Amino acid sequence: MKIEEWEKLAKILNVPLSEIYEADERQSNTCSDNASGNFIGTNFGPNNIYTTSEVLIEIQQKHLETQQKYITKLEEENRELKRLLENR
Length: 88
Fold this sequence. Notes:
The chain is an alpha+beta fold. The chain is elongated and about 55 Å long. It has a three-stranded antiparallel sheet. It has helices spanning 3-13, 17-20, 52-86, and strands spanning 28-32, 40-44, 48-51. The protein contains three helices and three strands; from the N terminus they run H-H-E-E-E-H. It has one domain (3-86).
């Protein structure tokens, strides 16, 4: 994907670009076979092939993990604040 597409994706996901994009010095080639519908994805080097949906799912999972950690932290803070209020 072009950097402009990564920027749009970051905006849609409401995350910093640095959270989902890492410049890769390796060569990347986009593979597309729209005529047969066999494969559309990106080949990063000789061994790793990722489809666009796999990349988006991975990004979404990381984002959800981050959100869950933040929710857990807020829940802990809420419990502590309730405890402090009860002890007043």
